[in-house]
Amino acid sequence: xxGTSAQNGGPxxxxxxxxxxxxQDVTFHHRHxxxxxxxxxxLYMLVIVIGGILASVLFAGSEFSSSLxxxxxxxxxxxxxRWTGALLLAMVQVHLFLSEPRLTGVxxxxxxxxxxVLLMTLIMAVSRFRTLTSLSETSIPAMVLAIxxxxxxxxxxxxxxxxxxxxxxxxxxxxxxxxxxxxxLLLFCGxxxxxxxxxxxxxxxxxxxxxxxxxxYRLRPGGYRLLVLGLLLFAGxxxxxxxxxxxxxxRLSKGQAGIYLRSTMTHWLSPDLRSIxxxxxxxxxxxxxTVKNVVSGTTDDIPTADNFS
Amino acid sequence: xxQRTRWLILLAVLGFGLGILRGQSMLALLSLSVLLxxxxxxxxxxxxxxxxxxxLKIVRRLxxxxxxxxxxxxxxxxSVQVEVTAARGTLGPLVTFRDCLEExxxxxxxxxxxxxxxxxxxxxxxxxxxxxxxGDVFLPGxxxxxxxxxxxxxxxRFVAVPQRFRVLPQYAVAGDIQPRVKRMNSLPQHGIxxxxxxxxxxxxxxxxxxxxxxxxxxxxxxxxxxxxxxxTRQYESEVPVRLVLFIDGSIGTRLGGFGRRLLDQMNxxxxxxxxxxxxxxxxxxxxxxxxxxxSRIPASGGERGFYNVLKNLAExxxxxxxxxxxxxxxxxxSAIRICxxxxxxxxxxxxxxxxxxxxxxxxxxxxxxxxxxxxxxxLAEIYQLPPQQMTNLIYDDSRMAWxxxxxxxxAGLAWMSPMxxxxxxxxxxxxxxxxxxxxxxxxxxxVARDNEVYVILANLLECATNIAHLMPAVRMAxxxxxxxxxxCPTPTFRRPQPDSFRQEVTAENLLKQAEDIRLAELSxxxxxxLCRAGAAVSISGEQQAIRMILSETQLARTGRVSxxxxxxx
Lengths: 309, 569
What we know:
- With 309 residues, chain A is mainly alpha-helical.
- Chain A is built from ten helices and one strand; from the N terminus they run αβααααααααα.
- Chain A has helices at 5-8, 26-55, 65-78, 85-99, 113-135, 140-150, 165-201, 213-217, 221-250, 254-296, and one strand at residues 14-16.
- Chain B is of the alpha/beta class and 569 residues long.
- Chain B has 14 helices and 18 strands.
- A six-stranded mixed sheet of chain B has the order 15-14-13-16-17-18, sandwiched between helices. A five-stranded mixed sheet of chain B has the order 2-9-8-4-6. In chain B, strands 1-3-7-5 form a four-stranded antiparallel sheet, with no helix packed on it.
- The interface between A and B is large, with 107 and 107 residues.
């Protein structure tokens, strides 16, 4: 609509009155944010590629090793479009379910740390990549080209060589990303150790030391172990949940407290309030139908409150 | 907790259970490690949200103004700078800041969403917006989304950074324009114009015979000597030309997107004409009328008068409470979307509890019922309704529609679907406008002085068949030697193309052609009726209308009846 002569082809005599256009300094910060997101995406893409190649050894020794590896790699490629963390985990779990020997009774120690940490790193990289992709507007090929050009070390045309601002910044962002990945790896190792410690609390074996679970509880050792560990983990989770919940309720805002009180009261009185309100609405509708009929002058049966079914 | 987390937990719990039961230690280890990882991420996430959320400090500057109030211009670019810092410590990734902008502001450059990808003390980003139409713009704050790196957990908060701006209408600066009327050779005093009636001016109007009581200095001695009888000089009256703009703010002029409403066209014409008139020293007044009533702003001149007119136009352009509409699912969904954006804490199912009900039975209806109950809870808190009113909202469609519409209107949505159904506006809407306008014009004429120019900017096309209701007021104004100009903006008006019959025959094209023909006929009828009475008419809200008004004003200044050789319309 704006009615400017330039837009509507009118005579130049009526010229729009506009302010001078806003300064164009937007884009340093906008580009900086976009660059950081894209650099992190690129890093996690690298982690997925490397981790995928290493993790495919999980399927070595299996009957359908090459097919499984292909499917695994296909799932990793599908990450470009969708989040595949659950599918990756499911695939490895099914493979272990079918191929891992049962009830070895041998203490496996810490030899399983590498495949566990590797798979968790893959799930982490896939999840982070998808999260950053949802926040970024750049397509993946454009992102890769931009990163390779940006980290190539060559200065943009027209800029003095001494100006290392953008390159140095990109490298700093890359370093931060690598630090985050390393911290995540440490976390995974910690989780593995904690899991190992939890499983050690109730060790496996056909007959647990001094305890015949079948005679005592009519449960197989596996079932007993699952129950005890499950209760222990649930107790730990419940304690944490109570603490977090308590903190959440103590931090309610005034609006949240108001809505909670209102909704709780409505919850208690819901059946009564519902029936009262529905009855009133029905009465109002009957009244409006009656008025319409009176206005339109019909002499047919006019529904009243008495004979309305 | 997001969908990703739920799937991982489900798989991990299943894997752990099967691994323990079957004695497969690797399977159990892997699954338990994943569970513990999610558990640790959960703890870290909540810790981060609790620690960082209260420390968030956001400052928004529009054109360098960080104050809570200010003025903006429509049609001009506005630079926005957003600065996010932590009062203490740093802010960690990933945090998304989304500025809640009204529909009247259109982002032209840069992102209105900032993302914190790595831990830092703060971040600044800039973007540019453009205000599309005059009125009021309220920027309530930022929708902040905290996420962990993996997207396993997210928390939404709203950080209030309220700023309210009055958007003044855009205007065109007329250059050296005298489009159809020849300029007078003499330079009149600024703000004073000739009027061909007897008065105390300096230009000679006529000579008449001396009447006892005439001042002796007005006797024209030479002419008296020639005629042999005393003759008196009669001078012209010199009066300012007062411009009074009648602006129609009825529902029909407010429908449509910002910048495309009829009211926006009228604002542009009114502001442009005001600028030119005040530059020439003529005072300008306003009469603003809509369903709420009429308000009159007395004529004033100078820069103060100009900005007073613009401020009143901007205030008038702010949409009032919308007319009642039937409740539709789209209206409910729009309201829910706005609630999620501006009141995310109120949409948390843990505190906005929906009472259980056996009915409705079908899953789709249950989902609708659930959404409506959530919305009712949020609206009850926003408008401070008691619990029984909150339950009323769940079952009473008209009440829910009213509150949902109010909320959407306050959120700055334009009057379009789903907020207002634009079809079947009703013949009686135009009649009410006609009566208001007629009364306002009559009242204005009754208190008018000499030589006033009345510019009526109204949507008269819809009630053109009953223009007779307005004619008595128009004739009265013309009879008192005032000028009346009627400007009828029509954004949908398109002149029928000469080869329109060659267009593809589709239902849409046929409807368009039918609408064109109907509008052409109505405009012709309107023009004929008004021109016959002596008023000038323009069916346009752009340069044509401005040019015509300026021409008529120039005629009024020179005291001429019409431009030589030029038609009145």
